[in-house]
UniProtKB/TrEMBL annotation, chain A:
Lineage: superkingdom: Bacteria
GO terms classed as biological process: cellular response to sulfur starvation; transmembrane transport
GO cellular component labels: plasma membrane
Organism: Actinomadura macrotermitis
Family: Belongs to the binding-protein-dependent transport system permease family.
Tagged with keyword Transmembrane: yes
The protein's name: ABC transmembrane type-1 domain-containing protein
UniProtKB/TrEMBL annotation, chain B:
PROSITE patterns in UniProt: PROKAR_LIPOPROTEIN
Keyword Signal attributed: yes
Family: Belongs to the bacterial solute-binding protein SsuA/TauA family.
Pfam family, one: NMT1_2
Signal peptide location: 1-23
GO biological process entries: alkanesulfonate transmembrane transport
Name recorded for this polypeptide: Glycine/betaine ABC transporter substrate-binding protein
Keywords, sorted A to Z: Signal
Compartments, record wording: Periplasm
Gene Ontology CC: one annotated term: periplasmic space
Key word Kinase present: no
Length: 259, 349
């Protein structure tokens, strides 16, 4: 345990040292490799009100992050709900599988930026197109994982439930879904990860406040230190969210890997 | 997961090698290679934008290729001056086109790009304008939602227009949108006004009212322009090539004046527009020939740098107020940023 923690800390420190060394060596101009000090300075600047300017582009860093997390949460929630429902249908009903299976795969391979301009025309420039984009991005991984897990449920479970007198309508929710839960949870983790990477695309249009909007704005003014800060914030919060989901997975499906 | 130390170390070393490899790659930029036997550069890398000015005529007519037959000329299209700045910092371009706003940023700290302005492609006129629905004066926009592509010349002009009407940024809701998104948002009724350029401006004008154009703002002293930037190292090493380049640009402006049909056909070919529409778009810009650019209002002469330096200085004040650059540089920084001497060498009086 201690060894694992120490190794991780050493890894982070080594990367930091490498970054510092590269920046200090001035191999490239600061626009290419901003120094850790400059990024730290931006962290302070974007988190405080200074000379009448509130954070970055009128919002504090925490507000940018909160706006993005809210979009991710909403998009993932809708995406997971839709994905589980769709996955159950695809896994249980062969006709639906034949009808929708290829469609889900098709949507899954579309890059978000390719169809985002359509969402803008359909849903405007405010929150709706962003939520819809994240939904479309988050739904397929959950649907695919659920469908596969549902089809992999042991036939003995179904037979046992039926012979113990369970009515046909109860089987999907009481037997199939719990049995498929570990794989579904993996799908959810993948989906939230996809939503997280997609939020930057979603915030290319009217994305301030939002961490992706902040990065994009900084990029246009060649403020690389703010860009790096945004990336670090996204990475760190992504790690935290994934840890929370792993915890939820262990709580919800403690039998994982023991059956 | 356990990391074995040896492979991890190997990976780090590989990363380090890759990084230093990149570094030497950046240093040996293609444009810095030895010149041809006749003193012309081996390569000339140009960053252009899809703006209906003389640059597209030079490109279409292949005048540069004919004037510099031993030079490999690469034309790369850019969508914004910010990207041109990035390419300049990376040493990937010799001559580029950027708006006055990005050039101001490039000449100021922290970027401090080593480039100069040898030519004004065009002064922005009626091709950028503020269009509104349900408002007939700029002051009536108070509390409304206005879109503009941030960091562009339009953004600068919009804030100058608001300021002129006694409004501040906080009196309105500003939305950062690219032109195609502005068109979509306008069609849906999501925005009340927009400061944008053609061709989207044309679509908005059919259902909205033009409140002010960049030509009118320029008359009030808020000039925006599309500028050429040349890498200082390139200008110093190949003054003759720069002279040739400047002469072709002047030739293009003169072609627009002498033979509009030929000029608009060339621009139309480059922008996939019918010649009549190209001609209309060219007319919305203010094109200046070399003599006019040498005037005191624009680039001036080596002894007396022109008024463009003051325009860039004004833009720097605006960017500082926007917290986009840390401080306003001295006026002399922008005066030195004008390649008036090079222009004078190319067109001696």
């Amino acid at each position: 345990m201690f060894r694992a923690v120490a190794l991780r800390a050493a890894g982070v420190l080594a990367l930091l040292a490498l970054w510092w060394a590269v920046a200090a060596a001035h191999l490239w101009p600061p626009v290419f490799v901003p120094s850790p000090g400059a990024v730290w300075h931006q962290l302070v600047q974007t988190s405080t009100v200074h000379d009448g300017q509130r954070g970055y582009a009128g919002h504090l860093l925490a507000e940018h992050l909160a706006a993005s997390l809210r979009r991710i949460l909403l998009g993932s929630l809708y995406g997971v709900a839709g994905g589980v429902a769709l996955g159950l249908l695809i896994g249980l009903v062969p006709t639906v599988r034949a009808l929708l299976g290829p469609l889900v795969t098709f949507v899954r391979t579309l890059p978000p930026l390719a169809y985002f301009s359509l969402l803008i025309i359909w849903f405007g420039i405010d929150e709706t197109p962003k939520t819809v984009l994240l939904l479309v991005a988050a739904l397929p991984p959950v649907a695919v994982a659920t469908a596969d897990a549902v089809r992999g449920v042991h036939a003995d479970y179904l037979h046992a439930a039926r012979s113990l007198g369970a009515p046909r309508w109860r089987v999907p929710l009481s037997v199939v879904l719990p049995s498929a839960l570990p794989e579904v949870m993996t799908g959810v983790r993948v989906a939230v990860g996809v939503a997280y990477t997609t939020v930057v695309a979603a915030e290319t249009v009217n994305g301030v406040p939002g961490i992706g909007g902040m990065i994009r704005d900084a990029q246009r003014y060649n403020q690389s230190d703010v860009v790096v800060l945004g990336l670090l914030v996204i990475g760190a919060s992504g790690l935290l969210i994934d840890a929370a989901l792993q915890l939820a997975e262990r709580r919800l499906a403690p039998w994982r890997g023991r059956s | 997961m356990k990391l074995r130390p040896l492979p991890a170390l190997a990976a780090l070393t590989a990363l380090g090698l890759a990084l230093t490899g990149c570094a030497s790659g950046t240093g040996a930029a293609a444009g810095d290679s030895a010149p041809n036997a006749d003193g012309t550069p081996k390569a000339l890398r140009i960053g252009y934008q899809a703006i209906p000015n003389g640059d597209l005529i030079v490109k279409d007519q292949r005048w540069l290729e004919q004037a510099l037959p031993h030079t490999k000329i690469t034309w790369s299209r850019f969508e914004s001056g910010g990207d041109v700045n990035t390419a300049m910092v990376a040493g990937g371009l010799d001559i580029g086109l950027a708006g006055s706003s990005p050039v101001t940023r490039g000449l100021s700290a922290p970027l401090n790009i080593k480039y100069k302005v040898p030519w004004i492609f065009d002064v922005i006129g009626d091709n950028e304008a503020l269009v509104a629905r349900g408002a007939t004066t700029i002051a009536a926009l108070k509390g409304k939602k206005i879109a503009a592509p941030f960091s562009s010349t339009s953004h600068y002009s919009l804030l100058a227009a608001l300021q002129g009407a006694g409004l501040t940024e906080s009196d309105v809701t500003l939305v950062d949108l690219e032109p195609p998104d502005i068109q979509a948002a306008w069609a849906r009724g999501d925005i009340d006004a927009a400061y944008v350029w053609t061709p989207v401006l044309g679509r908005l004008r059919t259902t909205g009212k033009v409140l002010i154009t960049s030509r009118e703002l320029a008359a009030k002293g808020k000039v925006t322009a599309d500028l050429a930037v040349v890498r200082t190292a390139f200008a110093d090493k190949y003054p003759k090539a720069l002279t040739t380049w400047l002469q072709q640009q002047d030739r293009a402006v003169k072609l627009v004046r002498a033979d509009k049909a030929a000029a608009s056909a060339a621009v139309g070919r480059q922008l996939n527009l019918p010649p009549a529409e190209a001609a209309r778009q060219i007319d919305e810009l203010v094109l200046l020939d070399a003599r006019q650019q040498q005037g005191a209002r624009y680039l001036g002469t080596a002894q007396a740098p022109g008024g463009l330096a003051a325009d860039l200085h004004g833009a720097a004040e605006f960017l500082t107020a926007q917290h986009k650059i840390p401080a306003v540089p001295q006026l002399s920084v922008f005066q030195q940023g004008l390649a008036a001497k090079e222009l004078g060498d190319a067109f001696p009086r």
